[in-house]
């Protein structure tokens, strides 16, 4: 649909006379989408959310914005297909840390926001559970699987070919920009959230050990 299409679809939903009163609205943005050092700019799925966020502010709509980083759940969905061969392939260099968030932590923050509307209305909270590099990911996976997992950086043009320009451009920004969420500050401010480290998240996923160990014939 593109950035303009998403924004045009969204705006009539909130373009009403009473949208600034009553129950607060909740919107899921992307971390770093508003900052010069973040990932915004010429990436459709980021820019569309940024425009919607600007619209909420312009209309003075009572809202809470949760801005998650890269989902940990993206890894088994898209990047664990070579684990049976002992390989984790990902578009970033092995030492580049990437802020990631567990979906369970996003849900916990959403529940907290709903249960604490006075505190949370007007807040924009960037969410990251952990910040890990490819080397750290394979170290964790190697321990869980009980065998060595090797890291391979996917060529960005391969990502562009199979996932499209939008995703490839996003990973190029991740590689080039050093934007990170203040994870320690986030955990300190919201201690009731059972934040997941990457290792804790991976250990809780039974499918990693079950689905990605080589089959013994």
Task: Give a quick set of tags describing it.
217 residues; alpha/beta; Rossmann fold; three-stranded parallel beta sheet; three-stranded mixed beta sheet; 14% strand
Task: Summarize this structure briefly.
The protein is α/β, with parallel strands linked by helices and 217 residues long. It contains eleven helices and eight strands.
Q: What report would you give on this structure?
A:
There is one protein chain. This protein has 217 residues and is α/β, with parallel strands linked by helices. It has one domain: NAD(P)-binding Rossmann-like Domain (Rossmann fold), CATH 3.40.50. 48% of the residues lie in helices and 14% in strands. It has 11 helices and 8 strands. The longest helix is centred in the first third of the chain and has 15 residues, at 44-58. The protein is globular, with a radius of gyration of 19 Å. Residues 1-22 and 33-40 have low confidence and may be disordered.
Cα(first) to Cα(last) distance is 47 Å
Over all CA atoms, what is the radius of gyration?
19 Å
Number of domains: 1
CATH fourth-tier homologous superfamily: NAD(P)-binding Rossmann-like Domain
Largest sheet: 3 strands, parallel
Which residue ranges are poorly predicted, with pLDDT under 50 across at least 5 consecutive positions?
Answer: 1-22, 33-40
Structural class: alpha/beta
> What would CATH call the architecture?
3-Layer(aba) Sandwich
